TrEMBL record:
PROSITE patterns assigned to the protein according to its UniProt record, in alphabetical order: SIS
Lineage: Bacteria, Pseudomonadati, Pseudomonadota, Gammaproteobacteria, Alteromonadales
Species of the source: Aliidiomarina sanyensis
Source domain of life: Bacteria
Name of the featured protein: Phosphoheptose isomerase
GO biological process: carbohydrate derivative metabolic process
The keyword Isomerase appears for this protein: yes
Length: 195
């Protein structure tokens, strides 16, 4: 009986690994161009002296913080910090849905870039932040799962969507962490190594 539970547990573990690997392989096959476009937009903004804002919903909020930390402190290189800000979702104001958009309205300027990480089908806070960014003539890069039509519907021709081939929030967050690291590595290579 104990041996059966152990085998079942091992099967579950293998299933998790296999699902994650399959999503990563599918992402590598379909998202290389979108990731390259996103990295190029980020590099252009930074070289133009613009700021990078990031935000996320639910479990993706910590990805936005991690992304900003990488931009500020470096990933592979010891280098000067890039101007990066994580939009905070903690507010004492009763209308919590506006907390990100109000920060963009107060701090964002034309040419700045907003990077959003969304693992749910809809995030009102992120949606409103994107609307505020568009009104400030900012460019948007969004890293989302397969099912976020209200988020991706806001994107214009100069914006970039990195759509992770999964609808499972846990798998989306795993890939968002990977993409946040990859984007900063690509930025550092392009700016400091000329690649």
């Amino acid at each position: 009986m104990a041996e059966g539970r152990i085998l079942m547990m091992q099967d579950t573990i293998r299933t998790y690994f296999n699902e994650s690997i399959q999503i990563q392989v599918a992402a590598a096959d379909t998202l290389a161009q979108a990731v390259e476009q996103a990295a190029s937009l980020l590099v252009q903004s930074l070289l133009s002296g613009r700021r990078i804002f990031s935000c996320g919903d639910g479990n993706s909020a910590f990805i936005a913080h991690h992304f900003t930390d990488l931009l500020l402190h470096g990933s592979r290189l010891e280098r000067p910090p890039f101007p990066a800000i994580t939009l905070g979702a903690n507010s004492t104001h009763p209308n919590q849905e506006e907390c990100l958009s109000r920060q963009i309205s107060a701090l964002g300027s034309a040419g700045d870039l907003l990077v959003t990480f969304v693992c749910q089908q809809h995030s009102e806070r992120v949606h409103q932040a994107m609307e505020a960014a568009l009104s400030r003539e900012m460019t948007i890069v969004t890293v989302v799962g397969e099912e976020a039509p209200e988020i991706t519907g806001l994107l214009g021709p100069s914006d970039v969507e990195v759509r992770i081939p999964s609808s499972n929030p846990a798998r989306i967050v795993e890939q968002q962490l990977f993409f946040s690291q990859l984007l900063v590595d690509l930025i550092e290579r392009q700016i400091f190594e000329g690649e």
